[in-house]
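Researcher: For the record, we're logging two predictions in this thread. I'll number them. Prediction 1 follows.
Model: Prediction 1, sequence and structure:
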Amino acid sequence: MLMAAIAGHHVELIYTVSKADGHGGRGCYSPVALRDLPWFLDSLCYVPDDLRQPLQPNMQILVEGRGTSLGVFATAVHRVGA
């Protein structure tokens, strides 16, 4: 992920939601769990409740930020098709 921050550029990646109703903890509050990612990179933290609450498993979200196709430091999150 360090390489994504240093060598990255503006990217928009689509991820599939695994779970969005957890409370989080250990530095990751209001998380959205993402499907098909390694366990240590599968959560998007501090997602606002107004975006997180309507999310259901298998819905897709678009994550914008600085990074590469392998990962992104998110600056914005949008529901796909919303």
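Researcher: Logged. Prediction 2.
Model: Prediction 2, sequence and structure:
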Amino acid sequence: MWRSKQEVREHVWKLLVEKKVALPPFPIRGRIPNFKGAKEAAERLRGSKEWIEASVVKCNPDSPQRWVRLSALEEGKLLLMATPRLKEGFLLLDPKKIAPFDYRKASTIRGAFIYGRKLKTLEELQTIGNIDLIIEGSVAIDTEGRRIGKGAGYGDIEHGILKEIGLIDDKTPIFTTVHDLQVLPPPLPQDPWDAPLSKAFTPTRTLEFGGLPRPKGILWKLMDPRKVEEIPLLRELREKLLRR
């Protein structure tokens, strides 16, 4: 039984390095770790029905999911990425407005700031319509769909904001790509705001999950007040809810 999320993270970061499957950027500690086979895991994800049918994809900006972001642009999907710590909201990349030879650069977080359009307000965010598929980065997952990120908590806040304004719901698929060594026996430690996965893709297999409940939105009573003040979209959402 794991005593804490951080214990899980430390175990996985150490394991990936010891088994020599970790890839730059180094050190991987404190990050969503890049890994050998990330491209193959992304290719497996691309074969899913949900991916094929998706027109609007939200993806995390971390290194191992770069192949997913590149594929989204190459296949003509609208790509939504969060800015670091949500300080400037989200970035929307429209492949129709980017030259194909720039897709590779645009799929990086630095390139996304060059080629993407910032969505800094709830109104701007709602212009994209429904999000068809969410891709999350993971430090570890278990075989029942629980996920642990790097510990900052911004992915959960992003999920909460999008749910509060109706761009996603409980049926919106949530996927991740990981190395096989990042898949652990259940249960991993979880908090009330953690959204479980629908599927996970490794270089060698596809895992399907179901049955774990999702949070209803932002859990305001458990939210750190400092994050509300630091994140403009979260502050705007709180003010909007208070006016109701």
